[in-house]
Specification:
The chain has 15 helices and nine strands. It is α/β, with parallel strands linked by helices. It has two domains: about 190 residues, Glycoside hydrolase/deacetylase (TIM Barrel, Alpha-Beta Barrel); about 120 residues, no CATH class.
Length: about 375
């Protein structure tokens, strides 16, 4: 069992370092829709024309590529990267996890070497789990990727009304991610240029959309949003795998231990995850992942990863990690937005704090 399944349920409502990107909360003040062209799913041979049309209309898209695509379409990909298009790692996850992870890394390095482009997203088309139980989320954790899935795959613009109706999208395409590799040029032009249905709607890459609205259920002004953005920027995995904050839910112990675990210890589990005893030994008695069981056993509490985060738990975790924290009163639970705000206050360097001072600004002892 992987560390990212500590707080499992059928809807992926557990904390994870890798987020599945399907759609985001519709941005406020601007209407945006991300376009994706996936070479592996394309049934037509007019990729250069389709992608050129997007570029000529003044927009950009995300392109899912494999190593074969990089070889065959080198000049096209180079020109699109120069035009601001995004590249997504399309390497599949095979039966052998380590081989697949190495193949993903090879494509990442090749793209960086050829185009100077640092990929941040990956997509697979087959199974998400390898033969030893490790998943594509484990592989993407090594590469520091998020997992691109998307909202709809369009073949023609006439499909849009029914798709939006089924998805109950009151905001239309705002915040959606569309696969457009099997649309004709005319259909794509109709989609992009029909201002009757898409008034003021802009089209962009997935990463550009995420920079405006990064989460599925929260945006600027929502409780916990600013804290989550700041923590994610510092590589604290505090958002759920389905890219949601669930700010009104109670924070639980498992997500706290996952958030504070050093990244190198989290990644180490890929080689030892089939042996839970060895995993606990490798992490050590003081490591965050071991805290829940040890704390519960020592204090005779029947609780594990799904136990609500209390004031006492927070204090114990911060003390074991040799970190300072300020607590007021007694608290039997933290809502997730409160939990995110608390972590941000203690883990995110504040503007004007001593952490930003230069050596010249720091008083001598």
């Amino acid at each position: 069992m992987g560390l990212d399944t500590m707080i499992r349920n059928k809807r992926e409502r557990f904390a994870s370092a890798v987020r599945r990107i399907t759609a985001v909360k519709p941005p406020q003040g601007v209407k945006l829709c991300a376009l994706v062209y996936d070479f592996a799913k394309a049934e037509r041979n007019d990729s250069a024309e389709i992608l050129g049309l997007i570029r000529d209309l003044g927009y950009r898209a995300s392109i899912v590529v494999s190593r074969e695509d990089v070889k065959k379409r080198d000049l096209l990909i180079k020109s699109l990267v120069q035009a601001g298009f995004e590249l997504v790692n399309g390497t599949e996850l095979g039966k052998k996890f380590n081989d697949s992870k190495q193949d993903m890394a090879k494509l990442h390095n090749e793209v960086y070497s050829k185009y100077g482009y640092d990929m941040k997203l990956g997509r697979i088309h087959g199974k998400e789990r390898s033969e030893n139980g490790l998943t594509v989320f484990d592989a993407y954790d090594f590469l520091e990727y998020n997992y691109l899935e998307g909202t709809f795959e369009l073949r023609n613009s006439s499909e849009l009304p029914s798709l939006l109706s089924k998805a109950k999208r009151k905001d239309g395409l705002n915040g959606c991610i569309l696969d457009i590799q099997n649309m004709t040029q005319e259909e794509l032009k109709t989609l992009i240029c029909d201002k009757r249905d898409n008034e003021k709607l802009g089209f962009c890459t997935v990463s550009e959309l995420l920079s405006v609205s990064p989460f599925a259920d929260a945006g600027p002004g929502d409780p916990g949003f600013d804290s989550a953005v700041a923590l994610i920027d510092l590589d604290y995995p505090v958002v759920y795998r389905n890219n949601s904050l669930f700010g009104k839910r109670s924070a639980v112990f498992g997500e706290l231990t996952l958030a504070l675990m050093p990244r190198e210890l989290r990644l180490e589990k890929s080689s030892i995850m089939l042996d839970p005893k060895r995993l606990r030994e490798a992490l050590g008695a003081g490591a965050p992942y071991a805290l829940s069981r040890k704390w519960a056993k020592r204090n005779h509490v029947k609780a594990a990863e799904d136990f609500p985060v209390t004031n006492a738990i927070m204090l114990k975790v911060f003390r074991i990690l040799d970190m300072d924290a300020t607590f007021q009163g007694k608290r039997l639970e933290f809502k997730r937005w409160e939990y995110l705000d608390f972590l941000a206050r203690h883990l995110v360097p504040q503007a004007g704090s001593d952490s930003s001072a230069t050596e010249e600004d720091t008083p001598s002892k």
